[in-house]
Structure formats: structure tokens, C-alpha cells
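Below sits the subject:

***
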Amino acid sequence: MKRIYLIIAAAILAISGCFESEIVEPQVLTGNALQELVVNAANGNKKANDSLFGLMDLQMGENILYNSLELDSFYIDSIKYFSVLLEYPNPVYNRLAIYDSTSNCYLIDKSLNGKLSFEVMELQDLKLLKLIEKFITKDTLSLSRVSLYKKIDNSINLVYRSFAELKTLKNRFNQTINFISQDTIKTQILVPKKYKLDVKDDIFVLNHLEKAYRSNQSLFDSLVYKEIADFDFKIQKPQLR
């Protein structure tokens, strides 16, 4: 199936916390009931979509044309949650949503591109939700990006998002997370020898006001954006900006 490709000009997040949506009477969710609601919402059912706190943008016409719909369940602090992961040929429709078993919505992330995979990470006393995107830009450059979500207080937040890999026609660049704690993420950066980096690791520290891990340098993302900007290639395929 034809994939829509993305030119990255900036990291623009389209994430909602769900709680400002129309109030809907709570119901006890099961995996089957949630899947039925998602399918009905994708078919344009407004009541189902309202129950999911606006998971779909109903004014858009291709909600039913998803490549895959994946539902999973997990526990944080003894509370059962459900994840909904929708992947589309056109990535503007891609979604990650988190609900609990009483139908509360904790996250809807609409800023996802390409092929998606999702897992729950358990690191001693720390539990994170990890999402990987894999996609192509400028017809040729292969990218992967890692997002981490964490429960903070009564919400689930996007706490980390950074590129993990860039593959060009001749070179390969990698950033690997090698340490995660409650307040710090450390990464290691690997680049071809001809690239002279003064620092080959980065540190992301939890900003409690923003509820996210932030780096003062964002070394790898800066490198990726520069490589994309400098890559001179006559684009043939459709691009999203």
C-alpha cells in the first residue's frame, strides 16, 4: 500500500490529554468493547467517537482505511489501562490512545508517522510506554524515532521524543538509550568517523514543570535535521509538511 512520506521541518506535537473533551458517562471497558467502539468511531459513529474523547477527526474521510488496529492492556499502580494503536497509509490519521477500564482517557497522540510499534517497558520501579516510528523522508532517507510516555500524577505524558536512527545512501547514524531513571535519560550517539563530534552522548533531565525529559543540546536531533536539510535530492513521491 502506498505510504505517505514526511519532510520534517520541526517537531510539532499534536497530543491531547483527553480530559477537556465532552463529558461522557463512564462505562466499564473490556478489550472487546473498546475495539467495537474504535471500529464504530472509524466508521463515523459520533456517539462512539465521543465515548473515546474524539479519537477520530470525523471531518476527515479516511478513518476506516487503517493498515492495522492493535489493542493491548497493562497495569500501572494496580490500575488497568488499555492502549489503542492505529496505523494508516496516510500518517495524519495515526493514533496512540490510552484509556482505563472505567473509560477515562489519559492520552491521544496524533503526531505519529510511518510504521508504528508499541510496548510497555518495566525498569525496576519505573514503568514507561515506548513507541517507535519508522518512516522515509525525501524518498530516500530512512528514519526511526522513539517516544516514551510516563504516568505523572493523574495523567500519562509524552516525556521523551528523539530520533534513534538515520540511514542515508552512504551513512548511518544512531542514538541509543543506555540509561533511564526517574529523573534522567542518557543516550549514546554513534556516527561515521568523518563526523567530528565533540560529545558522543547526551543527557535528558526531567523538567517537572513541563513533565518531560529535556536536553540542553539535543545533539542527535540537531544532527538529523541538518542532514535532512543538506540532502539534495529531487523528490518524486508525495510529502507531508
